[in-house]
Amino acid sequence: MTISVSGLVRNALLEKIEDEYDLECYKKAIEEYNKNPKTYTLEEVKERLEK
């Protein structure tokens, strides 16, 4: 299977956009965690979701 140059550029651009989005989500999650560093065990999460 061959890929055109435009297809290669498109795929690279989409990967870059995904990486930037993931990094932004990570930064927001870290910021929220730093404001409230409470963590939950898997069992605690299950209990909360079952209510």
Description:
With 51 residues, this protein is mainly α. The chain is built from two helices and no strands. The chain has helices spanning 5-35, 42-50. The mean pLDDT is 96.
List keywords for this structure.
single chain, 51 residues, mainly alpha, elongated
Number of helices: 2
Main β-sheet: number of strands, strand sense, barrel status?
Answer: none
Backbone structural class: mainly alpha
How much helicity do the residues have? Answer: over 70%
Shape designation: elongated
Listing every helix as H and every strand as E from the N terminus to the C terminus, the arrangement reads HH
Strand fraction band? under 5%
List the helices and strands and how they pair.
Blueprint: H1 5-35, H2 42-50
What is shown here, in short?
This protein is mainly α. It has helices at residues 5-35, 42-50.
